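User: Type I restriction-modification system, restriction subunit R. Structure?
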Amino acid sequence: MTSSRDAAVTYKRILDEIGAPESEIIISSSPKDEPHAEIRKYYKTKAQQRQIIKNFRKPFDEENNLAFLIVCDMLLTGFDAPIEQVMYLDKPLKEHNLMQAVARVNRPYTENKTYGLIIDYCGISKRLKEALDIFNEGDIAGYLEHLLDDVPRAEQAANKVKRFFKDVPTTYDSAEYVDRCVLEALGAEDTRIRFERAFKEFVALVNNIIPNPEANRFRQEIYLYGRIYNAMRTNYGIKSPSVLEAVPKAKALIHEYLESNGIKVFHEPVSIYSSEFNDIVNKKTSPKAKASLIQHKIRTTISNLQNTNPIYYTSLRERLEKLIAEHEQGIRSTTDFLTGLDKIKGELDVDVVARKYGMSREEFAVFQMVRAAYVQLQARAEKAALNLTEEEEKKLSEVSLSLFSALNRLAVIDWKQKPEQQKIMLKTIKRELYKIDFDIETAEKESHNILNLTRNLL
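Assistant: Predicted structure:
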């Protein structure tokens, strides 16, 4: 909000010159303006003004990046935009007009907007107190809070975070200390949830204080807890949005510190197959820390891929859980545990395994399901588990390839929303299963299982 229409034009021109985010001016026109005055090019019709206001109320996306709305006398009353968080005030206001200006930015919006800011360029604090005097004390209790009131709150919040790590001995190696905090203090999921909640409260308060120099007293704590939080998210494969997304100033401070210390901040989950993941593992300070990271990443990867090949990934998950149990019971050493984890990690890429059978990953998924059902059927008949002959394996492979080829042809556009097409696919599946001696009841059951699998493949 500017002190004059000319000032509004000046702000607009400078914002454009420095490459600032998109801005628009809404000012009133005047017949007294010179015909060729610069201000005239910023006149807007009522329809144009309505469209600008509509865009300003929207969040940023590919089509709308309007960040600044520059006004002088317009939009002071009757303007409602909850998304607005900051008002840059370069116009002396008083009484009701000042109170309305404050209210503009103080509307709740999303969980990322918990407060509003007024950047005061003309010294309105005294006038704000005068404006507040107009109202009853009960109506405005707590309306004006000094920013530094957040300092003692931030101290309390920092102590709350610190208590999570009271039993972790301090080490000279900060990387080792962070690893131990993540493993020893944050091993339980409910503890991680409580830590994230406490950390969120702390960084939100520090974010409010920045850039006041008082924020510097929390610098070391925000660095340490930010590093632990980043390591926790990486180690346990946490996919939910980071709490730092809601606190841009604190986020910038933490990320700058992490990156200056060679610690990468990943905004998306890191693939277990990537070189970045190997780098993270190699930087862990102990075999125990490495094993924890790998086992959680394997578990997350299996969970993500489970629906694409239920039989194969269920088998891997069972092997993983058995390996973890043996390590926890002391049957396996940490070194042996790491070796076992690396073996399972190497088998996560189903494409490699499928190629050994001369199949694609989709064909292999169908083969695994058909084979598992066949083994179970034969075991019931023989009253015991059995090993398949080479001839049986070949027959199962042929039927599975034929079955997938048929399903691929039948998977027309929008087949998942077409019941009649699904009936045709079920009949096709059963016809193939009858070739390997499935009885009617088993073929009926497995045809639905295979069709459900196909939903995830085609």
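The chain has a mean pLDDT of 87. Residues 360-457 form one domain.
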